[in-house]
Each structure stands twice: as structure tokens, then as C-alpha cells.
């Protein structure tokens, strides 16, 4: 996701999503590369995301946390989460910060 092309409202949503830490990895969802897109249209937000694995046991917990974070942005009144599996998540999608924090080289 190109953060430079986001509107002010979309940047606020992304900042809120950076507060959600994956409990297994200890890194936020944005730096893990799990958030593919954030779109704010009027007072509605769509978040397109994935999980590290299809059988992720904390998927429902994360969905609840994501909805709460998005709805904490003053302009947002409604939110839809779009969980996708394409493209499949891989470690190359992580930020440099996440890779360093997790000891991933390459």
C-alpha cells in the first residue's frame, strides 16, 4: 500500500491500525503487511486485509480490534472489512522495521 497516496482520513485510519499488535508476532498489522488497502468514502471505510495463514486462530479477535480502531477515527461512522487471500501474504510484504524486529534477513 502506498501511504503517500492516502487521504488525510485514510492516513488517520492507517495510524489507528498501527496500534493493533499481532499477539503471536508482537508487530502491528500494518508493518506486518497484512493491511492491503484503506479507503474512506464520506463517512464509510473499507479495509482490505489478509491474515498470515488461512487458519489463523486469532482472526475473529483481530477483526473486532480492527473495527474498533477504524471506528475510533472521528470521520468514520461505518466500516467493512474485506478479508482476502490473494495475493497470499509472505514475509516480503513486511516493512523493514518488522523484518528487523523479527530477525528476518533478506
From TrEMBL:
One GO MF term on file is: methyltransferase activity
Tell me which domain of life the UniProt entry assigns to the organism this sequence originates from.
Bacteria
Instruction: Identify one Pfam family in the record.
Output: FeS_assembly_P
Signal sequence residues: none
The UniProt entry, under InterPro entries, shows: Fe-S_Maturation_MIP18, FSCA_dom_sf, MIP18-like
Biological process, per Gene Ontology: methylation
Q: Where is the MIP18 family-like domain?
A: 10-77
Keywords for the protein's UniProt record, in alphabetical order? Methyltransferase, Transferase
Protein name according to UniProt:
DNA methyltransferase
